[in-house]
Amino acid sequence: MKAIEVTEYGRSEALEPDERPVPEPGPDEVRIDVETAGINFADVMQRRGAYPGGPEPPYVPGLEAAGRIDAVGENVGLREGDEVVAMTTAGAYAEYALARPDQCFPIPEGMDFAEAAGFPIQFMTAHCCLFGWGDLEADERVLVHAAAGGVGTAAVQLASRAGAEVFGTASTGRKLDLAADLGVDHPINYTETDFAAEVDEITDGEGVHLVLDGVGGDVFDDSMDALAHFGRIVTYGVASGVPAQANTQELLFSNTSVIGFHLGQAMRHDASRVLEAIPDLTEGLQSGELEVIVGERFPLAKAAEAHQYVEDRNSVGKVVLEP
Ligand SMILES: NC(=O)c1ccc[n+]([C@@H]2O[C@H](COP(=O)([O-])OP(=O)(O)OC[C@H]3O[C@@H](n4cnc5c(N)ncnc54)[C@H](OP(=O)(O)O)[C@@H]3O)[C@@H](O)[C@H]2O)c1
Prior knowledge:
This protein is α/β, with parallel strands linked by helices and 323 residues long. It contains eleven helices and 15 strands.
C-alpha cells in the first residue's frame, strides 16, 4: 500500500511517500480502508521531534483516519463495511490504517469522509476546552486564538452556539472574515493590533472570562492581561514552539486559573470526561448548527506540501490528505 513515512525527524521534506505491506489487524483491532486522513498540528510537532511521547522514526504519521472498515479482529463488535472515523495512535497517512474499536466513531449522518476526518480531535478538543475544562457560561466572554484554525473554527462555532460573546484572533483578513462568519463577534488581527489592549478597550477594562490558547509563548503572557478577575485560561497547545511560564503571584492576585488540556492523555486517564462531548457534537453536526470547515485537500503523496502549508499558517479549518 502507499503510505507516508518519517525516517528521520526534520522539516516537512521528512515526509516521504513509501510502499508498505497492508497491515493485518490484531484480535482487538480493525483495519480501515482510508478515504481521508486528517492533518493536525500535533503531526507537525511530532515530525519535528518536538512532541513529548511522540512516535520515533521510522513511523507512519497521522492521528485521524476516515473510511470503511475492511477487516476486523476476532474480539471486535464492528463490521466490515462500517463507515467510521478513528483517532489512531499513528499510521493514518496511508491507504490502510489500524485502530482499536474504542478509537472509532460512526460518521455522523450527512458528513463526507473529509468532514469526518476533521471532527474527532479538533471538535472534541474545542468542546472540552470550552465546557468540560473551561466551564464557559452563556453570559460570558471568551477569547479564541487562531480562530480560523482547526480547533479554532470548532471553538468559535461552539462558543457562539452556547450564547457566549466571542473574541477571536488570527493573522490575516481572510482568516478573520471566516472567523466572523462562524460566530466571532470581535475579530482581532493580532499582527496589526495588540489584542490584549483591544480586549481591554472593547470590555471597558473588564477582560474576558475565558481564553483558549493553543499557541503559548507571548500569546499566553498577553492573554493573562486580557483575562477578567476570576478568569480562566485553558492552555492546550504550543504552536509557537515556546511553552509559557505562568506567574503565580499574578494568578493569585487576580484569582485567575490556568488549566491544561490534552485530549490523548485525558482519554487515557478518564475517557468518560472527554466522551461527554460526543452527544452534543453529534447533535450539532447532524442538525447543521456546527460545520467542519475543510480548508484544503492534498493527495496523500503531497503530505510534505500539506505540512508546509499548515506551518506557513496558510491553512484555515481542517487540512486533509486523500490517498
Ligand atoms: N491538547 C490537545 O489535545 C490538542 C488537540 C488538538 C490540537 N492541539 C493544539 O492546538 C493547536 C492548534 O491545532 P490545529 O491542529 O487546530 O492547528 P491550526 O490552528 O489549524 O494551525 C495552527 C494555527 O496557529 C496559529 N499560529 C500562531 N503561531 C504559530 C506559529 N508559530 N506557527 C504556526 N502556527 C501558529 C496560526 O494561525 P494564525 O495565522 O491565525 O495565527 C496557525 O494557522 C496546536 O498547538 C495543536 O498542537 C492540542
